[in-house]
Amino acid sequence: MAVIELKNINKYFGSGTSRVHVLSDVDFSAEKGQLILVIGPSGSGKSTFLTIAGGLQTPSSGDVIVENQSVDQLSKKQRDKLRLNHVGFVLQSYSLVPYLKVKEQLEFVRKVKPKGNLSDSELKDLLAQLGITDLVNKYPGQLSGGQTQRVAIARALYANPEIVLADEPTAALDSARVVEVGKLFKELADTRKKAVVVVTHDTRLMEFADKTYEIMDGKLHLKNTAEMGQTSK
């Protein structure tokens, strides 16, 4: 059963002759236990797709359903609660608080969401898997781009969301770290039964995906096995 659905989504920016059709009649669904990639170049509508899927942005038309709730029919407070309890975001901007150490970034999650997070032992394992155990006392300004990205992933996953939405989570990572993140997302889907949706231009993640979609000029379509084989060559 789908935990997140997009039905006939359209999104426009601007008006008149400058209006841009960013997403065009997009239909999409994700179930628990699936790792889904949405592949596309810069400017294809990937980030807009992801933020609409997570209720951070409103579509021009169409319906977004998260955990059987139509997001459009919820108040702002209800949307915030839905995201807090069910959706974990890994955004390109990372959104780390600059004056908080890594461990304090995680403590902040616990203050905002006191229940339902990973246990201390699970968090320890997650930090080790991402290779950031030794960074817990550093500030964001002391981290490299790849380290910052991995901390942002850890912060999102610490809240133990049922739906994980990640925007270019491997953009700053070398191939070895891409494999680690791919395995982590796959484990979240297979073992912990999360719905994991990753928008990216990084085809190195395709080997871990249960489904791969391509987005181009705002149009989304499911790639078949033959297409995936050609893309990964």
TrEMBL record:
PROSITE patterns: ABC_TRANSPORTER_2. The keyword Nucleotide-binding applies. GO terms for molecular function: ATP binding; ATP hydrolysis activity; transmembrane transporter activity. Residues 4-231 form the ABC transporter domain. Part of the ABC transporter complex hrt involved in hemin import. Responsible for energy coupling to the transport system. Belongs to the ABC transporter superfamily. HrtA family. The complex is composed of two ATP-binding proteins (HrtA), two transmembrane proteins (HrtB) and a solute-binding protein. This is Putative hemin import ATP-binding protein HrtA. It comes from Lentilactobacillus hilgardii (strain ATCC 8290 / DSM 20176 / CCUG 30140 / JCM 1155 / KCTC 3500 / NBRC 15886 / NCIMB 8040 / NRRL B-1843 / 9).
